[in-house]
């Protein structure tokens, strides 16, 4: 494996992190707005279509004809999910006896 290939895999990984953060960050935003709107089904459906279109196009562009880049991007996507889940969880309060 050459340095050029390693750099491409790292770029694909970081692109996957960004894609995952955008996808799951958008999902978090949708849930927050969904409880406030009068038509939540329309909001959730539109958000789903927009997020899935973005992810599919991004995966296609990153992994075109290179399955190793696609796998690296997918691993970054999963890491992006964990990062958004960690950043958006509510603060834990300590119970005082």
Structural domain tally: 1
Ends apart, CA distance between termini: 58 Å
What general form does the structure show? flat
Order of helices and strands: HHH
Mean pLDDT: 93
Backbone structural class: mainly alpha
The number of E-state strands comes to 0
Low-pLDDT stretches are none
Description:
- It is a single chain.
- The protein is an all-alpha fold and 97 residues long.
- The protein has one domain.
- It is built from three helices and no strands.
- Helix 1 packs antiparallel against helix 2, helix 1 runs parallel beside helix 3 and helix 2 runs antiparallel to helix 3.
- The protein is flat, with a radius of gyration of 17 Å.
- The model has no long low-confidence stretch (mean pLDDT 93).
Which tags fit this structure?
97 residues; mainly alpha; 3 helices; 80% helix
Topology summary:
Layout: H1 3-34, H2 40-63, H3 67-88
Helix pairs in contact: 1-2, 1-3, 2-3
Question: Briefly, what is this?
Answer:
The protein is mainly α and 97 residues long.
């Amino acid at each position: 494996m050459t340095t050029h290939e390693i750099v491409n895999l790292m770029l694909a990984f970081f692109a996957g992190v960004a894609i995952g953060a955008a996808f799951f960050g958008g999902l978090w935003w949708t849930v927050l707005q969904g409880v406030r709107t009068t038509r939540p089904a329309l909001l959730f459906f539109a958000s789903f279509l927009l997020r899935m279109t973005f992810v599919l196009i991004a995966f296609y562009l990153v992994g075109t004809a290179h399955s190793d880049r696609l796998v690296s991007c997918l691993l970054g996507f999963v890491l992006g999910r964990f990062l958004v889940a960690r950043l958006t969880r509510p603060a834990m309060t300590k119970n005082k006896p």
